[in-house]
Automatic annotation (TrEMBL):
Superkingdom of this protein's organism: Bacteria
Transmembrane annotation, as ranges: 7-28, 155-173, 180-207, 227-251, 328-345, 357-376, 388-408, 420-438, 443-463, 736-753
Keywords: Membrane, Transmembrane, Transmembrane helix
Name of the protein: YfhO family protein
The species this protein was found in: Holdemania filiformis
């Protein structure tokens, strides 16, 4: 036990040392870790809101279901399960009393450690020796997938636990142990449902592969498989409390169902990139001057590299003397690589959405585990194979850039000087590793070269990212405190301007460029403000309707970046204030009145004198088709826009000729209340995104809600004074909680069954020995 512990300590020390080298540019220059496409504009803000909702839970005992600050109001519980809600590292981060970027950096190191430990355990299940386990663990921990996606916090969380999934399958096939599989299924599904789907998609292929290697025949295949499927379902059931609400929410996302039927990628450069991506740390040039550039992040993010040692040894499959292992492994590996070649397969692996190469995390693991098989038998390597592999690899690295330039007819070769230097350095490591293998040098040399290779490539990436981003702690401190010094200062200021604000719900228009310094579309979360922009791929699905009838709500022509500037839509969305640096930044067409020209030493605060309350009754109605054909999008504050199937029902509620507003509004956590007095029954529209999780009561009676005016909530009210009460519980939460309870009870029953089975087996052996 002590020996095992010492080995893990040594492995941990190596991982921490490489991590420190990689992160050293940020550490030495005392700069926040902003590496990653989304860590600055998304993770920072979502994590801040997550933290605030958890604090709110302890203060008010309201579960963190709904966020009023997330774009127009949002089902945080279901939408952010993709990012935060089920990830155990999110909660660990809350315990670290530091700023977000330091917490993120500490968590990344912890995840690297967990990646190394779990891969070490998996390789132990494969019966590899300690030296091989060290090399395989380091290769997995710092693979191109791990380094590139380290800026996507939950992605790396999933990756670091994934080896345990394969380990539990191995334990089941080798020893019949079942308990680990449901538990790790639960952990992974809680962490990230998106990747759990992808992992589940590839599981049958992997399972059949391992079964054919470990079992003498397929006589008990169906029985064994059904047992494992049952264990899988137990794990899935235990997560029902989160995954059922998430499914109900995410399945409405317009990215789901964008299935690609393309047989081949249009750009030949993608296939050339695939050819050399195993040989070079390509994450260094992604998003830079790149000969393989495709302009689409889904096809440029090709992560296959896990060290040149892996690249050198993988072709040993072709010359393996074990015919069964060679045949089965080649078939398995060819099947996996088909997903690199055909977009429609890649699309299937990602939930029938856009084809992407994010699934290659599985290919990375398979490549490393296969190479470890040959490291285990290093003295039996095929020398001819090694030499041929080295020759072909060097040829590819020398020829691929000129060939790609020729095919693309783009820039000259000189434009890719840095990429050429990277390829030349890869050749050096390729030759060194081949020489070590040919001369049968010790594992220590192979491990040392691997560590140097990862340290240099990781350092290069983080150093270049740090220099290009140039974000300092002072900058972040400044941009997040432009509008307030302490939390809720801005809200307090606005509410003090007009005492009536305490009884109203309103939004505030802020220009991204000047006030938020182009930092993020999600800055409203940092100042506890109801804003009008977001960068969020899990935005409220009902807003898809607004995208259809008003394309201008999109920013950067993105499907999930919104910055609403249309004055008529801003009016409908109850925008009451605007804070700008210059009057020219105000959206035209609204009645702006200057309140102060010296907020926070120079900011201009304006009031919209045509402010529309969060809720207003309507007496005119049109279908979406009529709205679009007559271009009446500018009349959302006056006309109800609805589906044709709802037209008659809603119209029958419109018996009042007057328009009145929702008053005495109070909202916090998962509820909103207000009053509305009308002479006749009418139809009230709230500028909150429609979500079936809202239960609406009018004078104590639960009423039907409708999705109107581009995906917002509408419902009927009675004549006279109406007391409105709204309570939010994510769709599927209660049913999911029941499913989780069933799953937990089933898992407990499985534990008891396995313990009794083990005890009876031991008793039987003892009796036999007597």
């Amino acid at each position: 036990m002590l020996i095992k512990r010492n080995k893990l300590v040594l492995l941990s020390a190596i991982i921490i040392l490489i991590s420190l080298i990689i992160f050293s540019p940020y550490l030495i220059n005392n700069m926040p870790l902003t590496y990653g496409t989304d860590i600055k504009p998304q993770w920072f803000e979502f994590y801040t809101e997550f933290k605030n909702l958890i604090i709110q839970f302890f203060e008010t005992k309201q579960l963190p279901f709904y966020s009023w600050n997330l774009f127009l109001g949002n089902n945080f519980f279901a939408s952010k399960s993709y990012y935060l809600m089920g990830d155990i590292f999110s909660y660990i981060g809350l315990l670290i009393p530091m700023n977000f970027f330091d917490v993120a950096q500490i968590l990344e190191v912890i995840k690297f450690l967990v990646s190394g430990w779990t891969m070490y355990y998996l390789l132990g299940c494969y019966k590899h020796n300690t030296k091989v386990k060290f090399i395989g663990s380091i290769a997995y921990t710092f693979s191109s997938w791990a380094i590139f996606y380290s800026g996507q916090l939950s992605f790396l969380s999933f990756y670091c636990w994934m080896p345990l999934y394969f380990a539990s399958i191995e334990l089941y096939l080798r020893k019949g142990k079942k308990l680990m599989f449901p538990f790790i299924c639960m952990i992974l599904l809680f962490t990230n449902f998106y990747f759990f789907y992808t992992l589940s998609f590839f599981t049958p292929i992997y399972y059949i592969y391992r079964y054919s290697l470990l079992k003498d025949n397929f006589k008990n295949f169906i029985k064994d498989t059904l047992v494992l499927i049952g264990c899988y379902l137990l794990g899935v059931f235990m997560t029902g409390v989160l995954t059922l609400p998430t499914m109900a929410y995410i399945l409405q996302n317009d990215r789901v169902g964008q299935f690609s039927l393309k047989l081949f990628f249009e750009q030949p450069s993608i296939y050339l990139h695939e050819l050399c991506a195993r040989l070079v740390p390509n994450y260094i040039y992604i998003y830079r001057t790149n000969v393989f550039e495709t302009t689409a992040h889904t096809t440029r993010e090709l992560c296959l590299y896990s060290g040149t040692l892996t690249a050198v040894l993988l072709p040993q499959i072709f010359s393996d003397k074990d015919k069964n292992f060679r045949k089965v492994t080649l078939i398995f590996y060819v099947i996996l690589n088909l997903f690199l070649l055909f977009p429609f397969l890649s699309s299937m692996a990602h939930g029938f959405s856009d084809p992407t190469f994010r699934w290659t995390m599985i290919l990375i693991l398979v490549q490393i585990s296969t190479v470890c098989h040959y490291l285990e038998n290093i003295n039996q390597l095929n020398i001819k194979n090694l030499k041929i592999t080295m020759g072909i690899s060097i040829f590819v690295l020398i020829a691929v850039i000129p060939l790609t330039v020729f095919l693309s007819k783009g820039n000259t070769i000189s434009a890719y000087r840095n990429q050429i230097l990277l390829f030349l350095s890869a050749i050096i490591f390729l030759v060194i590793n081949t020489w070590l293998l040919l001369n049968k040098k010790s594992y220590i040399w192979l491990l040392t070269v691997l560590c140097i290779e990862y340290s240099i490539s990781g350092f290069t990436l983080y150093y270049s990212r740090m220099r290009s981003e140039g974000i300092t702690y002072e900058f972040i401190e400044s941009v997040t405190h432009v509008l307030q010094e302490k939390d809720n200062d801005l809200n307090a200021f606005l509410e003090n301007i007009e005492p009536i604000n305490y009884l109203q719900y309103y939004r505030t228009y802020i220009p991204l460029e000047s006030i938020y310094w182009n930092f993020s579309h999600n800055m409203s979360l940092m100042v506890q403000l109801q804003g009008t922009m977001t960068y969020d791929s899990t935005y409220a699905p009902s807003f898809n309707k607004m995208k259809e009838i008003a394309l201008e709500v999109k920013d950067y022509d993105s499907e999930w970046i919104f910055n609403i500037k249309n004055p008529d839509i801003l009016q409908f969305l109850s925008v009451k204030y605007a804070i700008v640096t210059n009057p020219s930044e105000l959206p035209e067409g609204l009645s702006w009145r200057l309140l102060t020209d010296n907020y926070r030493s120079g900011l201009l605060v304006y009031r919209n004198d045509d402010y529309r309350s969060l809720g207003t009754t309507y007496n005119q109605i049109s279908t979406y088709e009529e709205i679009e054909s007559a271009k009446l999008i500018t009349h959302l504050s006056d006309i109800v826009a609805c589906e044709s199937s709802d037209l008659m029902e809603i119209q029958n509620m419109m018996n009042s000729n007057h328009s009145v507003e929702l008053e005495n509004i109070a909202y916090q956590g998962n509820y909103l209340t207000g009053t509305c007095n009308t002479d006749e029954s009418s139809f009230l529209v709230l500028s909150l995104p429609y979500d079936e999780g809202w239960r609406v009561f009018v004078n104590g009676q639960n009423v039907k809600t409708y999705s109107v005016n581009g995906g917002f909530v509408g419902f009927g009210i009675e004549a006279g004074n109406n007391q409105i009460e709204m309570y939010f519980t994510p769709v599927g939460f209660k049913q999911g909680a029941i499913i989780s309870l069933i799953g937990i009870m089933g898992y407990v029953a499985l534990i008891i069954h396995e313990k009794l089975k083990t005890r009876n087996s031991r008793r039987y052996k003892n009796e036999q020995s007597i």
